[in-house]
Amino acid sequence: MIRVLVVDDSALMRQLLTEILAAAPDIEVVGSAQDPYVARDRIKELNPDVLTLDVEMPRMDGLTFLRNLMRLRPMPVVMVSSLTERGAEVTLHALELGAVDFVRKPDGPIAAGMREYADELIEKIRTAATIKVKPLRTAAPSAATPEAQEPSPARAISSFRTTDRVLAIGASTGGTEAIKEVLMRLPPDTPGVVIAQHIPAGFSAAFAERMNRQTGLVVKEAADGDRIMLGHAYIAPGDYHLQLARDGARYVCRLDRGEPVNRHRPSVDVLFRSVAKAAGANAAAALLTGMGADGAQGLKELYDLGVHTIAQDEATSVVWGMPGEAVKRGGAVEVLPLPDIAAALLKGLAAKRKH
Which residue is catalytic, options 81, 82, 172, 204? Predict the structure, then answer.
């Protein structure tokens, strides 16, 4: 049984979350808490396997509690986030502090909306229970202040130059931090980067803005028709597939709301297949941490075209589902730890692999 402690200041949310999770045969809700101080005592008393945590809490905010928890008693935490600009920013900071995933509160009637999220919540709790969380070593920057200085002049050098080569990245659970790690290691004149991260609508714009502040690239939420520029990265909007397309001699972004693929929209497979069609061997691709198999077949199809393909290794992945499946299918030229992937992408792009 997976033992869960529910932490939320709303009595209704505590009741709903408890009812939803208790319906799963392999999950036991061992208790609940209305604020971090009560939660601290309940963790000591009940020793849960997984915590659900509201992002905004009374007496001690959720981020302060999470930071202390990850430093002193690291454990898998799934955030329960409000669909607001503030909620999205706090949630992304929580992932930076070590939370393994999040579910968003519905923006309509709470009871009906949360029951619609029941399967997603249960699946994420099950995944969280398998993750070995590492202690937080250093204090993360405050969510209230920009994490990086203003864009350096180097970022402006390539702002208006299109790219003839493309990097493609896909990720899911644990992917927001993994993508940041890769982008931070890419130089300002990197070929254009297209990214599919499994993320809900309303959170992708905040994620793109955060990456724009924290990395040396110009990062934006992709818009339909965006030209792929040198030194730029384009993140698929939540609830839209992102595809790479040709417009004459240039690459552009195409967005659509086609059916979910592998239960996801955006889907990594959709992105990777479009890269295979539009760019072929003028691309390199990496499949990062994530639950499930989305992107594994797309990476294999890129591999078969002679593209340099990389899967993140198990040791540095939060969940070795997607990259592990790509390795099983023979779709990865290299299996690498996260810190080595950026350099390997650039090297692979420069030296095209023979078919």
Answer: 172
Of 8, 49, 81, 198, which is the active-site residue?
198
Pairing type for strands 308-312 and 334-336 reads parallel
Sign of CA dihedral 180, 170, 174, 52: positive
Please state the pTM of the whole predicted model: 0.90
Say how far apart CA 115 and CA 288 lie, in whole Å.
30
294 is annotated as an active-site residue: yes
Q: What is the pLDDT of residues 300-350, one digit of tens each?
A: 999 999 999 999 999 999 999 999 999 999 999 999 999 999 999 999 998
CB-facing half-sphere around the CA of 288: CA atoms within 13 A: 28
Q: Is 142 a catalytic residue?
A: no
Q: Cα–Cα distance between 265 and 128 in angstroms, integer?
A: 22
Q: What angle do CA 222, 223, 226 make, to 5 degrees?
A: 90
Domains of the chain: 2-129 (3.40.50.2300), 153-350 (3.40.50.180)
Any bridge partners for residue 45, and if so which?
none
Among 294, 308, 313, 317, which one carries the catalytic annotation? 294
Residue 172: active-site member: yes
